[in-house]
Write a structure and sequence with these properties.
The complex is a heterodimer of chains A (277) and B (464). By secondary structure, chain A is α/β, with parallel strands linked by helices. Chain A is 25% helix and 32% strand. Chain B is an alpha/beta fold and 464 residues long. Chain B folds into three domains: 127 residues, Orthogonal Bundle (Fumarate Reductase Iron-sulfur Protein, Chain B, domain 2), CATH 1.10.1060.10; 161 residues, FAD/NAD(P)-binding domain (3-Layer(bba) Sandwich), CATH 3.50.50; 152 residues, FAD/NAD(P)-binding domain (3-Layer(bba) Sandwich), CATH 3.50.50.60. The chains are: A alpha/beta (277), B alpha/beta (464).
Chain lengths: 277, 464
């Protein structure tokens, strides 16, 4: 059993969960994910790591309540426990000396791209953070990003904070901000990662996306997480989850993500994040 | 004894096919005491028991059958346990017809003694009596052993090393122990309570079990080595193969591992009481002809499929599955499409599988495996409707451990290379055995490899 140190809603429908998992905390890297089960009958749900404290032995994830399993996680209280918190899984995000890197986060991806931005900064890159949400009250962790990024840019669909509109405006925003990234890293909703990849393709900027297919084991044993990248089948849990967004077969990916839609009651619309999948 | 009785074995009592396809309870119910006595009575107790040579771990088969015939079941189980720690499992899933029973002299004129069923009888007898004897705990010898994987190979090493006084810890990636016995082989063939019992048994010997621990990820082998005197890798062959034909990433296409894991490990058949969902397809095609394929096809029927097919490119004779399971599948109404090779999966606009293009095959010259090679018949392409395809054409070892363990030698298919007699790998202090070495094989061979490795490890630490 893994002890829950904290679970709180940070913005509507997004929860921060801090779990005591010393072995995971010891070896986790940016871009990794963990497999979580909320109770003994629970599904194995993959969640990206958003932060960790190696000394305290804790790991933080940000999750969005979308279905049965995340609803159970949303009911956890400090002092409670969960049966599974396995990881760290997946390849870590490539942290090189790239020059200028733009880290884009939306939804839970604001959380998971944070350690990526931090590591890229430590590596000596110039780091810009672009945080996306439907409205200003859904943005979070700006303070943390300010500590690790050279500039934090915001965009909301309703224009209540920062730029107004969708990430399809990316090229325009880059011009207005005077940023010429050598690489872009995007974490968050599939739809958003796809849109960013489409926007950056003509600009020829390498764009890494953190893919989030349906998973079971997360160790390469079942193959449900497969996707096509540059014409070849890959298992996201072991070959990824980071891939070059320009090489991903998005149509197939979106179809596969919808496999269990009819079975899973999904209060997605209520969350206002219709693009989560 | 009448000649007829000598010729044919006691039939296995089973749930009726029409009944069992609607539940996940065990199909084979096990011999009654009378049946066991009668079956044991058929054994000729040969001077040179060939059956024993056929057993990969050399169980004293005539020895335990003699005990049954004499009504001393308690001694019978002890005889088995001298060489096999998991008789309740092996009695159910070993391919006896190609190991021990094929050598039985009675088989020349009639049916061989039902050795597997008798083994199972003794194991079940012991469990029902509820007094499985725990051997006296060994005195600690101060050495620590780490085991990667809790499948039959890992459990065997844990058992043997604990009895020798080692401090043993098993690291298991999943949230439940047992390996394929837990996530792969279905409840109706191997009840999970039996696997659980075996796992609890080794725990009762003082073995520690760390679940949710992915060696290579949570910690590397090298880092574990700092704390342990020796490591045994029994990580199995968990990486599913696909056919590499167009359309394999359509919705509705599963690896057998995914399909069976959803059902067995995640209890998808109890959705929504358990959270992991399972689809309810009506026409299921399973590609392959081994135990895994049979398990998938039979699981599909139990989940309500109207039709469940085995699509196999060779003929019935070459089916690699246990004979008994192929028969069970036939009885339950699984449709066998022999000499059929899928070449393309076809889907609709939404990316869902609708049809499979297949070719008709015929058998040609024998190939490297000694079996006649299937060859395509020209212009024989045809379509089969399907809303689910389950690919069960094989597995190879997961590359996770070799990738994160420098200097650990692996073969072409990713299998860890070892010295066959000792299980020793190319790296000092690391042994390996089971499917991770051989590729997908059998429960008993994994156990046999574990036993050899345990012996070799002990001799390394305490040379004679
Ligand atoms: C590598 C990886 C990292 C992820 N990181 C995070 C994270 O940090 N925070 C977070 O909130 N979510 C993350 N996800 C998505 C998260 O796993 C799913 O939202 C979760 O499994 C939904 O479970 P549920 O039972 O609550 O919903 P379900 O009832 O299972 O599903 C609700 C809806 O979500 C869809 N869905 C099902 N499985 C997934 C899936 N794996 N991913 C996305 N949608 C799915 C369903 O189709 C359905 O429409 C990640 C996924 C992957 C693969
Ligand atoms: C569906 C199916 C049906 C079968 N039917 C039969 C049958 O009827 N008769 C028969 O004899 N054989 C059968 N087999 C084959 C048999 O189950 C295997 O040969 C046997 O289980 C191999 O044992 P093992 O201990 O080597 O590996 P496994 O049983 O595969 O166990 C390996 C364990 O290691 C764990 N692991 C893997 N990587 C790591 C890691 N990095 N860190 C920690 N843990 C890890 C895995 O999660 C798993 O629990 C069947 C197999 C399948 C899939
Ligand atoms: S989640 Fe099972 S192989 Fe990736």
């Amino acid at each position: 059993m893994y002890k829950v140190v904290e679970r709180r809603m940070i913005v509507p429908n997004l929860h921060e969960l801090v779990v005591e998992a010393p072995a995971v905390a010891r070896s986790v890297q940016p871009g990794n994910f963990v497999i979580v089960r909320a109770d003994e009958n629970g599904e194995r749900v993959p969640l990206s790591v958003a932060d960790w404290d190696r000394e305290a032995g804790t790991v933080t994830v940000i999750f969005m309540q979308v279905g049965a399993s995340t609803a159970k996680l949303a009911r956890l209280k400090a002092g409670g426990s969960i049966p599974t918190f396995a990881g760290p899984l997946g390849q870590e995000t490539e942290i090189g000396a790239f020059g200028t890197v733009l880290c884009i986060g939306g939804c839970y991806g604001i959380g998971s791209v944070y350690p990526v931005a931090r590591a890229l900064k430590e590596k000596g890159n110039t780091v810009f953070a672009l945080l996306e949400a439907r409205s200003n009250f859904l943005l979070y962790w700006q303070d943390r990003f300010k500590e690790v990024a050279d500039r934090v840019i915001e965009i909301t669909r309703d224009g209540t904070k920062g730029y107004k509109g969708h990430l399809t405006r990316l090229s325009e925003i880059l011009t207005l901000e005077g940023i010429k990234p050598d690489r872009i890293v995007v974490n968050g909703c599939t739809f958003q990662m796809m849109k960013v990849s489409e926007a950056t393709r003509p600009m020829g900027i390498k764009t890494m996306v953190n893919m989030n297919p349906i998973m079971i084991d997360g160790t390469g044993m079942c193959g449900v997480c497969r996707l096509t990248v540059a014409g070849a089948t890959k298992f996201a849990c072991v070959d990824g989850p980071d891939f070059d967004g320009h090489e991903v077969d998005w149509k197939e990916f979106l179809n596969r993500r919808r496999t269990y839609n009819p079975e899973e009651v999904h209060p997605l619309r209520k969350s206002g994040c219709a693009s989560h999948f | 004894m009448a000649g007829e009785t000598r010729k044919s074995r006691q039939p296995m009592p089973k749930q009726e096919p029409y009944e069992r396809v609607r539940n996940f309870d065990e199909v084979a119910l096990g011999y009654t005491e009378e049946q066991a006595l009668a079956e044991a009575g058929r054994c000729l107790d040969c001077k040179k028991p060939l059956c024993r040579d056929g057993c990969p771990v050399g169980i004293d088969i005539p020895g335990f059958i003699r005990c049954i015939a004499g009504g001393d079941f308690g001694s019978g189980i002890k005889v088995i346990k001298e060489t096999n720690a998991l008789p309740a499992v092996c009695g159910r899933v070993c391919p006896q017809e190609e190991q021990c029973e094929i050598k039985c002299v009675l088989g020349k004129k009639g049916e061989p003694v039902a050795i597997g069923r008798l083994e199972r009888f003794l194991a079940d007898y012991e469990a029902a009596e509820g007094k499985a004897e725990s051997p006296a705990l060994a005195v600690s010898n101060g050495r620590k052993i780490a085991i990667v994987g809790s499948g039959p190979a890992g459990i065997t090493v844990a058992n043997d090393m604990a009895l020798l006084g080692y401090d043993v810890t098993i690291f298991e990636a999943l949230h439940a122990a047992g390996g394929v016995l837990t996530y792969g082989i279905p409840e109706f063939r191997l009840p999970k309570a039996i696997v659980q019992r075996e796992v609890e048994y080794v725990q009762s010997l003082g073995v520690k079990l760390l679940l949710d621990f992915i060696v290579g990820k949570t910690r590397t082998i090298e880092s574990i080595q700092e704390e342990f005197d020796g490591i045994f890798v029994g990580a199995g062959a968990g990486l599913p193969w696909f056919m590499g034909i167009p359309g394999e990433n359509l919705n509705g296409v599963y690896s057998a591992n995914e399909y069976l894991t959803r059902c067995n490990l995640m209890k998808g058949f109890r959705f929504p009481a358990h959270d992991t969902p399972m689809k309810q397809p009506s026409r299921v095609l399973v590609f392959g002809g081994g135990n895994v394929a049979m398990d998938a096809a039979r699981t599909a029927l139990r989940l309500g499929a109207a039709e469940s097919h085995i699509v196999y490119r060779r003929s019935r004779e070459e089916l690699p599955a246990r004979a008994e399971e192929a028969e069970n599948a036939e009885e339950e109404g699984v449709i066998f499409d022999y000499l059929t090779l899928p070449v393309r999966l076809i889907g609709n606009e939404q990316g869902w599988l609708t049809e499979v293009e297949c070719l008709k095959m015929e058998l040609g010259e024998p190939d490297a495996s000694g079996r006649r090679k299937p060859v395509e018949i020209k212009d024989s392409s045809f379509l089969m409707k399907a809303d689910a395809v389950i690919v069960a054409i094989g597995n190879s070892p997961n590359p996770l451990i070799p990738m994160t363990t420098p200097g650990l030698k692996v073969g072409k298919k990713g299998n860890i290379e070892v010295d066959e007699e000792t299980g020793k790998t190319s790296r000092d202090g690391i042994w390996a055995g089971g499917d991770v070495v051989t590729g997908a094989a059998t429960v008993i061979s994994a156990m046999g490899a574990g036993r050899k490795a345990a012996k070799a490890m002990n001799e390394t630490f305490f040379p004679k």
